[in-house]
Amino acid sequence: METTQNLLGEIPLIGSVFDQWRRAESVDPNKLFLTRGIFGGDNSAQNMSLWADYLRRSSGDCRQDRSATDQHGNSSQEEINLTNKDNINNVCVKVVPYRYGSNVDVLWALFNISYGYAYDMASEIVLKCNVNPGDSVALSGHSGGVQRIISTARILYDDGINVKKMYGIAGPALGYAPCRETKVVLNSKFLQDPVSEVSRFLRLITLDLLTLDKKWEYDNRGEEQKEDKLYEHVTPGFVDGITRLKYDGFLYDNFEYLLK
Fold first, then answer.
1. Which of 93, 69, 82, 198 is nearest to 146 (CA)?
2. 49 FRET partner, CA 20 to 30 A, in 17, 32, 119, 251?
3. How far apart are alpha carbons 32 and 55 in whole angstroms?
4. Does residue 200 carry a pLDDT above 80?
5. How many CB atoms lie within 10 A of CB 60?
6. Which phi and psi (to 5°) does residue 253 adopt?
């Protein structure tokens, strides 16, 4: 049955409906992995430290994985300890780089044709971050990184690793994933963010049949009284070098959802 499901899972577009997406019971995750969108560039261009910093409750070293990271020379990987007030265990937050790829990678993944950039993320998690079968993790992505975490969850599940929660920011997402909770937040202003419009369009033409396991929401800029420009399509937490504007519009919900 498992082999048949995996085979059916390779069907373009609708394959994930048949794949190993059944949610498995799992323990609370102790690692959270973040990925930015496409066109990331080399290590110096990843620009994700402020997104990870926003999730900090108390600083730490994640000493268990420090040596592995240094050994591979991955200088862009931010390592932070997080303490949830309802859980005395520390959660280690890590940034998985997205150095290569373009909108073609996202397109192929959306249509369930190829997801090499998701394999890249999954291998980083398994080989460099001390994640083993039976462990539980949480994933979060922005823009093209949203579909990346959807595909990564399926790859990790086949390896016996459970994805407990996923949080997507302003990105398209199609297909089922073996995750207990998946939430995607889009820009609420019509035509302000083309990528959010793509997500709306994909939901419309598929009648939401490939997104039924996801909770879709729109940003809370009114509730938080934040300006529209803070929700532009920029990596969360990124600071503009000229205006010094910090694009933190989506980060509040990110924090509440992933850590509650």
1. 198
2. 119
3. 10
4. yes
5. 15
6. -65, -35
Give the C-alpha distances (Å, rounded to integers) separating 230 from 56, 172, 249.
Answer: 21, 20, 5
Chain-centroid distance of CA 127 in Å reads: 18
* pTM as predicted: 0.85
Q: Are 235 and 144 in contact (CB under 8 A)?
A: no
Residue 139: what are its φ and ψ, rounded to 5°? -130, 145
Residue 55's alpha-carbon distances to 83, 109, 189, 198, 253, in angstroms, are: 10, 28, 26, 28, 11
Could you tell me the domains of the chain?
2-259 (3.40.50)
Residue 131 one-letter amino acid: V
- DSSP lists the bridge partners of residue 163 as 137, 179
Q: Scanning the structure block, which residue is given the tokens 């969108």?
A: 37
Which one, of 154, 118, 139, lies nearest residue 18 by Cα?
154
DSSP string, 28-73: PPSEEEEE--S---SGGG---HHHHHHT-SS----HHHHHHHHHTT
Q: What secondary structure letter does DSSP report for 25?
A: P
Q: Which two tokens stand for residue 15?
A: 């394959």
Average pLDDT over residues 91-112: 88
| pLDDT on residue 256 | 81
Neighbours of 69 (CB within 10 A): 18
Strands 87-95 and 79-84, by their bridges, are antiparallel
Alpha helices by DSSP H, 191-233: 194-205, 221-224
